[in-house]
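USER: I would love a firmer grasp of how sequence relates to backbone shape in proteins. This is the protein in question:
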Amino acid sequence: MTITQSDLDAYLDEALAADEMAAIEKALREDGALTRRLAEIISRRNAGVHSVGEIWRTHRLSCPTREQLGSYLLGALGDDILSYIEFHLKTVGCRYCLANLEDLQSKSAAKTEEVAVRRRRYFESSVGLLRKK
């Protein structure tokens, strides 16, 4: 397996699939030269020397905002942004956005359950208080 500069950058950014991360981790344990290459990248980053690509990846400039992901879940987006978010999630498979989306879905499910419990309590507390016509 040949590990490129961009692979090491993605490794440091935790932007690879789990199996790719594990393969690089294993290679780092076995290859001193690769470990030195990684140390050079870390030193360069710590020195403030960044490429446009690094800045783009680090600040996640291509990722939709949490609000946009929430609107995606609600189906309240225009076709252009909807198409981009679906591409970003399904084709690119951005782990950060997928985790963010999963968090929003779980919070939405919890809210739905909370509302159902609240409605049931309101109903139970008003039983016998409402007059029949």
